Amino acid sequence: MSSKVLENFLKEHLEDLKGKGLYNVIDPLESANGPMIKIAGKELINLSSNNYLGLATDQRLIDAAIEATKKYGAGSGAVRTINGTLDIHVKLEEKLAEFKHTEAAIVYQSGFNCNMGAISAVMDKDDAILSDELNHASIIDGCRLSKAKIIRYKHSDMEDLRNKAKEAKESGLYKKIMVITDGVFSMDGDIAKLPEIVEIAEEFDLITYVDDAHGSGVLGNGAGTVKHFGLSDKIDFQIGTLSKAIGVVGGYVAGKKDLIDWLKVRSRPFLFSTSLPPAAVAACIEAIDILLNSTELQDRLWDNGNYLKRGLKALGFDIGESQTPITPCIIGDEIKTQEFSKRLYEEGVYAKAIVFPTVPRGTGRVRNMPTAAHTKEMLDRALSIYEKVGKELGVI
Ligand code: PMP
């Protein structure tokens, strides 16, 4: 017999979420997550994936994955520190260090568990972490896990960060203080003010931690936000994911050799969770080789992003202040945002509604993620559907 307490809890809370338009429905894809997708037999223009460069469906990555599976099998068989480290795991880490212009790198099974493992390996209850209020959920959870004092600063507000850093330092309460930020904020597409953050970090002796999940492959000729600002030797932790621009799955930290050596002996997901499967590792190596050799895909991504932004703006949509190809269309009210996304879907565009708690209440948006793989025809079709639905719902 199942627990009545649990049953009542779930019923009450699920109904509450559904009533407020905050319940996310999951639509399984019947196709690859490319520029066009198929859901329930319907072909849609896909503006919701993080497959920024189209590499998830690139034949070179697929071939590399198949070859690695034939050689090493479907799974890696153990955690990294027992005997789940294949030679290709080591090769991937070397490639990542080259890609990020650092001494070394460590690979995790996802960006999420990278943040869970990396922060808590270095910070503890005697420390403090200054964290941007809009940082990703995995950073928030990683900070909590560390038991350090979490001090949130206003989003990209450098005066607030400086004041809080000064106060924390002068209190004498903390052994170590870290400042932690997303490189690119995925809900608005804005870029962290890294030069100012580094200046503040130098003044107050802060450890610097940048999660560049959305900047890698996109900014800095592909190398990311830190490289974009020329700060590769000034950031202690460069975090990335292998699931977005790289097109596969996994996460990593790039940094000084000593830091990476420490993470390899103290980071719990590295020590206690089975390593990435061979297919994923080989495909990631292929993707990074592609990025190291050409900026063609980034150029196409930016071209498409700018094209979509110009089009939506010309139609009268509020596209916020994005500095990257991420293009939010801010609707505001949660129910209306869900309705907008639903109507886009019916007309042939898949652009997911993002509402509270992922973004603050009242700032619901349909978020568009153009990729290098979209054609101008797809984007034109998406824009004409946006125009139709925008007029119908009184958004423009
Ligand atoms: N950090 C940030 C900033 C992210 O946006 C995401 C993905 N949503 C992650 C970490 C987690 O990455 P992954 O999907 O590889 O677990």
TrEMBL record:
Record-linked InterPro entries: Aminotrans_II_pyridoxalP_BS, Aminotransferase_I/II_large, AON_synthase_class-II, AONS_Archaea/Firmicutes, PyrdxlP-dep_Trfase, PyrdxlP-dep_Trfase_major, PyrdxlP-dep_Trfase_small
GO molecular function, one term: transferase activity
Residues covered by the Aminotransferase class I/classII large domain: 43-384
SUPFAM superfamilies xref list: PLP-dependent transferases (SSF53383)
UniProt keyword list: Ligase, Pyridoxal phosphate, Transferase
Record carries keyword Transferase: yes
One Pfam family here: Aminotran_1_2
Cofactor(s) needed by this chain: pyridoxal 5'-phosphate
Family: Belongs to the class-II pyridoxal-phosphate-dependent aminotransferase family.
Subunit and interaction comment: Homodimer.
Protein name as catalogued: 2-amino-3-ketobutyrate CoA ligase
Gene that encodes the chain: bioF_2
